[in-house]
Automatic annotation (TrEMBL):
Residues 18-165 form the N-acetyltransferase domain. PROSITE patterns: GNAT. This is GNAT family N-acetyltransferase. SUPFAM superfamilies: Acyl-CoA N-acyltransferases (Nat). GO terms for molecular function: acyltransferase activity, transferring groups other than amino-acyl groups. It comes from Streptomyces antnestii. It holds the Pfam family Acetyltransf_1.
């Protein structure tokens, strides 16, 4: 059976990657500000933050960005960067709201884990926030377990890890 989904590597600096990064950042930033300050992200701040994180850590040889397409249209992304010789970190996992519930997140996560193995990872880690309930549910469903803090990101509230077999 043919799937409407494809998942493939994408240059971190492509126009597709930039557009997905902006959509991802806008959503998570707006969710944080709405929860904590009752407003959406200031447009100037959004532009500064999107520009400040180029995603260059998702380039070879120590990283990869995957883009999921639904019927050929960019619908989501997930990245992996190596933290050390055996630990990969999951970054920028995102599926457009209109595409959620159609299996894209599962495929992206499987693709990211496979890419991490190809980069030499024996273990993959990630951080997320309490309000990103859908993300935490996805990771738990795929065998990720909460682990002690491994970074100092001020917005992170939960850390997960999974052994890659």
């Amino acid at each position: 059976m043919n799937s409407p989904w494809t998942v493939a590597p994408e240059p971190f600096d492509s126009s597709v990657a930039a557009e997905l990064w902006r959509a991802y950042y806008t959503e998570v930033s707006d969710r944080w500000y709405l929860l904590h300050e009752g407003r959406t992200t200031d447009p100037g701040e959004l532009e500064r933050e999107v520009a400040a994180d180029t995603g260059d850590y998702l380039a070879a040889p120590d990283g990869v960005l995957l883009v999921a397409r639904y019927l050929g249209e960019p619908a989501g992304m997930a990245g992996v960067r190596m933290l050390d010789a055996s630990t990969g970190e999951l970054k920028r996992v995102f599926v457009r709201p209109a595409m959620r519930g159609k299996g894209g997140a599962d495929l992206l996560l499987a693709g990211a884990e496979s890419a991490a193995r190809e980069l030499g990872a024996e273990r993959i880690v990630l951080d997320t926030r309490t309000d990103l309930v859908e993300s935490r549910t996805l990771y738990a469903r795929h065998g990720y377990e909460e682990t002690p803090r491994y970074n100092d990101d001020p917005y992170s509230e939960h850390w997960f890890a999974k052994k890659l077999l």
